[in-house]
Amino acid sequence: MDSVRYDAERRGHRVPIALKILIAGGFGAGKTTLVSALSEVRPLQTEEILTGAGIDTDDISGVETKSTTTVAMDFGRITINDDLQLYLFGTPGQDRFWFLWDELAFGALGAVVLADTRRLADCFPSIDYFEQRGVPFVVGVNCFDGSQRFSLEAVRRALDLDHDVPMVLCDARDRQSGKSVLISLVEHVARQRGEPVPAA
Amino acid sequence: MRTDLSGHRHEWLDDDAGPVVRPYTLTGGRVRSCADGFDLVAYVLANPNPDLGAYPELHPEHRLLVELAGRGTPVVELAADLDLAVGVVRVLLGDLLSRGLVAVQQPPRATYLPDNDILKAVMDGLRAL
User: Fold this and answer.
1) 3-state secondary structure (DSSP) of residue A117
2) Residues 6+ apart with CB under 8 A from A167
3) In the predicted structure, residue B115 carries a pLDDT above the cut 50
4) Which of A81, A135, B13, B53 would be A130's cystine partner, CB 3.0–4.6 Å?
5) ipTM of the prediction greater than 0.95, yes or no
6) For A49-73, what is each residue's pLDDT tens digit?
């Protein structure tokens, strides 16, 4: 890995730092909607390849005979300043594509788990995933019809969430609302590191 | 394109999966990049004066990558721009890296970010949106 760690700056260019934030949750919980609301560009899509041939092995013989398919990932970008960009990745919805999450989660700043109170159980796997890997996350309770059906405390109990995991009500379609979710995530990351939460 | 799956059911292939493709044709069957570690948000920066003429073996997609990476572009955006799967783009980038046509800057792991300054910058930037 070190072989590719060239310092591009030595070539006289200044390259921004890109930070990853994952947007997770069950199918239909509003992941793509949230990425769209926040991204400064129309959300882009990229594909990762699923193949019977292990990407983790060097053996490429017979690749041409393996069944291969792709899974799409949505992503968006927020430019913070000349040196810093946030990339928001909507995680692939189906549980069986989770091995792709490991790559997304590697080095990520944190994650937003979107919860739909009509199908709360759908976000359990995402919460388990981030808890197990120690990725800081917040839960955004997406209020689809603009009304709050349950109290945050009730949702927290239902999700069996630790008390230090922030929960926020949000509307995934609304940029300002999505922005507050990301801000609570960054505050949570700062708190977890024992650093002062940056003031407004 | 969907292939005829009768008799060859594959666990990945159903309505949730994308189309069946042969994405590695472009890489000559190579599924692994010769350089490891192109993170999705690693910045790829093309050599400012690439001598592409010296490498007739490179595909048009290689050349496009060099062009797109002229001002520094993350891997995932290159893949989206070329409409190629990330795995394929990684292999192509490995070819370019080994020929010195691009440089790669890996992102810092967020957990190792040195100080509060970056978090503060992110917070300020978000509040200003």
Assistant:
1) helix
2) A138, A139, A140, A141, A152, A155, A156, A161
3) yes
4) A135
5) no
6) 765 444 444 344 444 444 556 677 8
Residue B125: CB atoms within 10 Å = 18
Q: Environment class of residue A33 by beta-carbon count within 10 Å: exposed (0-12), middle (13-18) or buried (19+)?
A: buried
The pLDDT score that the predictor gives to residue A44 is 82
Got the DSSP string for A23-55?
EEESTTSSHHHHHHHH-SSPPEEEEEEEESS-T
Shortest CB distance from A45 goes to which of B31, B80, B110? B80
Are A87 and B76 a contacting pair at CB < 8 A?
yes
CB-based burial, B27-47: b 16+ in 10 Å, e otherwise = beebbbbebeebbbbbbbbbb
Residues of A in contact with B120 (CB under 8 A): 198
CA angle (B66 as vertex; B65, B67 as ends), nearest 5: 90
Where is average pLDDT lowest: A84-98, A116-130, B62-76, B95-109? A84-98
Q: Please calculate the CA angle A15-A48-A109 and round it to the nearest 5 degrees.
A: 45
By Cβ distance, the residue of B21, B31, B110 closest to A19 is: B110
**Mean pLDDT value of segment A129-135:** 92
Contact B64, B26 (CB under 8 A): no
The answer to whether the beta carbons of residues B28 and A60 sit under 8 Å apart is: no
* Candidate from A97-101, A107-111, A146-150, B15-19 with smallest mean pLDDT: B15-19
Q: Residue A83 corresponds to which amino acid?
A: D
Which of A200, A24, A195, A17 has the alpha carbon at shortest distance from A105?
A24
**Any bridge partners for residue B71, and if so which?**
none
